[in-house]
């Protein structure tokens, strides 16, 4: 077969999975039908042993080779020339999968504020439905950071021996009150927007800018802002740190919507790997895969000790740490360290 595209273009393919099977949620609610947008890079080999499943973070999308370009791509650690890489836009997110702006089959109208609560375990169940649909009998590596790490952990428990390696970055087995507090402050900002409550895609957009500004302070570290945002000239106001946060808020509000953000922040809050499983340790003990938990030394949101807890309580777990001034977002930035940590993990 003559491929008309260049090797790289050939390897990236966009798909949509339409599930007609209902998704029964942890809350007891039912998502009657849903669709998942997902991107694949590379080809599954004959024995299906080269599947790398990537789970994106809160505002991520399925284009993993874009936002993780230092880790995924031609000549990178996960190379489509030898790996089959798949990344799904998580349920609730506005990058192509079913979300609050999607049409509710019961009403024929968009869900808006009637969209059901989703937990990381619900999102993992939707990924499992796609895995079954793809007849993917085994997964070489399941890798995700932050919210993506929460979903990956939930799925790793259910996958049993079908999963060989789980790589969990800057995440947790049970969301801390600290993270819940940050997310609640962000939802308060969104809810304070006068447009919140309206049935328009723009609802809460201005509040989302403030929510992102709050979030950025948890995703970075004082040393990071000191390095990048210290003012050189003497001034009384209009500081660099102020314009940076305003900019980041505007930048997110241009590419994401407040309803998805509000929904997925509640998803992040609800993570409890041990729920109905006898506690987090018992749940971690059910993971058959090798587990690499990677913390960030300056992460003020998902603390390094939460990654250490995952490693210490998994049957085949180990902990490694990224050293960075970037804080929580280092898992999206420190590609050289990530590649080195992964190299040593797979060599063992
Ligand atoms: C397109 C997508 O991302 S799709 C979704 C997938 N993305 C994800 O999963 C992660 C979402 N992305 C992120 O969290 C962040 O962008 C990261 C962590 C990946 C990258 O962070 P960094 O590269 O450190 O960028 P940083 O946070 O320093 O911001 C740099 C930006 O702020 C701007 N900036 C820096 N300082 C200031 C300032 N004082 N005032 C105004 N703007 C400023 C820069 O010009 C730059 O703008 P640009 O992004 O338009 O080029
Ligand atoms: N800053 C990243 C990670 C958050 O955990 C995002 O916006 O998705």
Keywords:
348 residues; alpha/beta; Rossmann fold; Rna Polymerase Sigma Factor, Chain: A; 2 domains; two-stranded antiparallel sheet; 38% helix; globular; disordered N terminus; binds acetyl coenzyme *A; binds L-homoserine; amino-acid biosynthesis; Homoserine O-acetyltransferase; EC 2.3.1.31
Structural overview:
By secondary structure, this protein is α/β, with parallel strands linked by helices. The protein has two domains: 12-176 and 272-347, 3-Layer(aba) Sandwich (Rossmann fold), CATH 3.40.50.1820; 178-268, Orthogonal Bundle (Rna Polymerase Sigma Factor, Chain: A). 38% of the residues lie in helices and 16% in strands. It is built from twelve helices and ten strands. It has helices spanning 7-11, 64-67, 120-133, 147-159, 177-191, 205-219, 222-229, 240-255, 258-269, 280-285, 304-313, 335-347; strands spanning 13-19, 23-24, 30-31, 34-41, 51-55, 84-88, 139-145, 163-169, 290-296, 317-322. Strands 1-4-6-5-7-8-9-10 form an eight-stranded mixed β-sheet, with helices on both faces. Helix 3 crosses helix 4 (147-159), helix 5 runs antiparallel to helix 6 (205-219) and helix 6 crosses helix 8. The longest helix has 16 residues, at 240-255. It is globular, with a radius of gyration of 20 Å. L-homoserine (HSE) is lined by residues 57-60, 146, 219, 329, 332.
């Amino acid at each position: 077969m003559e491929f008309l595209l260049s090797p790289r273009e050939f390897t990236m393919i966009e798909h949509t999975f339409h599930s007609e099977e209902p998704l029964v949620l942890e809350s007891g609610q039912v998502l009657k039908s849903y669709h998942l947008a997902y991107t694949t890079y590379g080809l599954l080999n004959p024995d299906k042993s080269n599947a790398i499943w990537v789970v994106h973070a809160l505002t991520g999308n399925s284009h993993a080779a874009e936002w993780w370009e230092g880790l995924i791509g031609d000549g990178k650690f996960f190379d489509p020339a030898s790996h089959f890489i798949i990344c799904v836009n998580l349920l609730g997110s506005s990058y192509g999968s079913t979300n609050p702006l999607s049409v509710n089959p019961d009403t024929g109208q968009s869900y808006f504020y009637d969209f059901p609560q989703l937990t990381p375990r619900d999102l993992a169940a939707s990924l499992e439905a796609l895995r079954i649909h793809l007849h993917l009998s085994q997964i070489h590596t399941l890798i995700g950071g932050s919210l993506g790490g929460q979903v990956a952990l939930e799925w790793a428990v259910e996958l049993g021996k079908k999963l060989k390696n789980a790589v969990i970055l800057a995440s947790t087995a049970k969301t801390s009150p600290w993270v819940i507090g940050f997310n609640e402050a962000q939802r308060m900002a969104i809810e304070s927007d006068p447009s919140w409550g309206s049935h328009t895609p723009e609802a809460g957009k201005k509040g989302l800018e403030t929510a992102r500004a709050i979030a950025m302070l948890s995703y970075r570290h004082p040393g990071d802002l000191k390095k990048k945002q210290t003012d050189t000239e003497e001034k009384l106001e209009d500081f660099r740190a102020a314009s940076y946060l305003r900019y980041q808020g505007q930048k997110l509000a241009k590419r994401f919507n407040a309803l998805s953000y509000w929904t997925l922040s509640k998803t992040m809050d609800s993570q409890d790997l041990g729920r109905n499983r006898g506690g987090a340790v018992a749940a971690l003990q059910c993971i058959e895969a090798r587990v690499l938990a990677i913390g960030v030394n300056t992460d003020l949101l998902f603390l390094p000790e939460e990654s250490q807890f995952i490693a210490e309580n998994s049957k085949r777990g180990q902990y490694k740490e990224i050293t960075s001034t970037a804080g929580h977002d280092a898992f999206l930035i420190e590609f050289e360290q990530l590649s080195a940590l992964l190299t040593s993990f797979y060599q063992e």
